[in-house]
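Q: How would the structure tokens look for this protein?
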Amino acid sequence: MNKILITLILIFVYFSDVVSEQAEFEERYIKTLAQTLQCSMKEGSDQIWPGFHLANQPLVFHFQNGHVYAFGLKTFSPIWEKRECGQFPFLFSAKYPNDLPPLHPFFPFESKRVFVMNLDHGNETPYLPLLTSIHERFHLHQFRFFYKERVVEAKLADYQNGDLLTWMEMEHRLLTSFLLANDQSKLHYLKDYLAISQLRRRSLHSDSITWENHQQKMEGLADYVSVKTFQIFSTIPQFKAEEFLLEMRRRKNKDIVNAQDALKGRHYFVGAVLGWALDFCAVEHWKLKIEKEG
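A: Here is the predicted structure in token form.
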């Protein structure tokens, strides 16, 4: 009997800790989101990307426990409770009747079209779901405003070539060094990267180059915007942008560049770091040039 009681107590303590951890995580994420959205409405959004504003579409975030948070949504439904974070209003519901998708850019929601995303973290890098939400939200801006080039699938043979994969690994290491170097050394690593990249791309099929450019522009710059957002607004405590870019890279590929990574994962990192490099080199209006001219 005593063993059963002890077991029940341990189970209760375990689940209490889990619930407490989930509540703390949820509160921290929603507070950070509210502060970020408040900043985006008052200051600095054009420093992240001209014309991109997080709060110009209703945003709905939800968790596996059924908690739903809505920003920029006007509704009179009694299932919602009005809340504030630093005088920034949002809605909360633990009674929303329908299952929400993990991600949907224009989900039909109470007669409106809203951006919906699940924010459960699992074993994620801290705050990664928040950066992912901005990455996905920026895609909507890209789909609407970016130059629309003809994009074809990459030539698989290009990315199974061992020599080209070696060049890609060298590019990756040079871009990593660029991020970590002091300002006096950054340009050296960037020049080496550009030289090797140009050599490698001479061996690619033209369709592969078009596809690679598109991946780095769309996925890479979406990662750039997500990291830049929290660098500009400082709503994540002790956020270090360069370290987060490297952590996001490590999550996509922990080993050296391989064919699968070459076809997808590396372009997030390369595009994001090239955006960082253009900022470092103070290239004027580079964001609008990429948006309008490709």
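Residues 7-19 have pLDDT under 50 and may be disordered.

The two ends are 72 Å apart (CA to CA).

Upvote if useful.
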